[in-house]
Amino acid sequence: MKEVSFGQYYPVSSFVHRLDPRMKLFFLVAFIVAIFVADSFYGLAVCAFVLALVVAWSKVPVLKVFRAVRGVLFLALFTAAINLLFHTGETVYWEYGILCISKEGILFSAYLILRLFLLVICSSMLTYTTTPVSLTDGIESILTPLKWVKFPVHALALIMSIALRMIPTLMEETERIKNAQTARGANFESGNLFKRIKAFIPVLIPLLLSAFRRADELSDAMEARCYKGEKRTKYKKLQFTWRDLVVLFVIAALITGVALLRVYVGEIL
After folding, report:
1. How many C-beta atoms lie closer than 10 Å to residue 60's C-beta?
2. End-to-end distance of the chain based on CA atoms, in angstroms?
3. What share of the chain is helix, strand, coil (3-state, %, to 5)?
4. For the chain, which residues make up each domain, given as ranges?
């Protein structure tokens, strides 16, 4: 639980931290599009280079950035193994029944792993460099046109802000309950999968009760302060600066480079 990076903010003064949250969201969407447009390792190399620039400009430690990959490591290896054994190709190294290991399968599995890692790292950089309040303000600003159709944009932004704020709190609560159950003789490490899942039941029930209690206390506090969602003003106004213009040029160069590689280089998997 301590290694989970989503929802955690790394406080430091950097070029990326001072960007407008709307531009960060736009960059994330453009980066995801570029990853799926890229159909070769050259295209993914361009995406990786741009992401490396973002990491360097953010001043977030590299080890902390790569720690985000640990959460999806099992999924990446499982997906790679499935594609490695069932992806057919011309250059076959080993074959047994429906199972086949080929050069094309190895390349395709490596391509999928690299793409997944880039997606996870870029998403983690968004939460590392943006506070929950700024992130929800940016989402609310982007979804402002939906207010014309009476969509509760502010309520949605508030829910997302509270959810992001509660992720580190719930992780700490889980660790505290787990340590308390371990002191009482609970064993979470030994046994088969079903026994481990059963051992976590004494952790999940107190965690759910704690989450509902926190939600009830938060609602009482908001009502006591006469909170209303209609026509609220902002303490900090979101404004685009020269930094956002630089990022916009980086996005344009990224999309253009990946598209040109797709047209002139083509698929090499």
Report:
1. 21
2. 36
3. 70, 5, 25
4. 1-130+239-269
CB 157 within 8 A of CB 139: yes
Polymer length of the chain: 269
Helix (H) or strand (E) holding 117: helix 103-129
DSSP string for residues in 10-64: -----TTTTS-HHHHHHHHHHHHHHHHH--SHHHHHHHHHHHHHHHHHHT--HHH
- Residue 24 and residue 244 in contact, taking contact as beta carbons nearer than 8 Å: no
Could you report the per-residue pLDDT of 172-228, keeping only the tens digit for each? 888 888 888 888 877 777 767 677 777 788 888 888 888 899 889 888 888 888 777
Token digits of residue 246: 């630089």
Q: How many CA atoms lie within 13 A of 11 on its CB side?
A: 1
Residues 26-46 have pLDDT tens digits of: 999 999 999 988 888 888 899
Measured between alpha carbons, how far is residue 233 from residues 130, 197, 206, 264 in Å?
21, 46, 38, 50
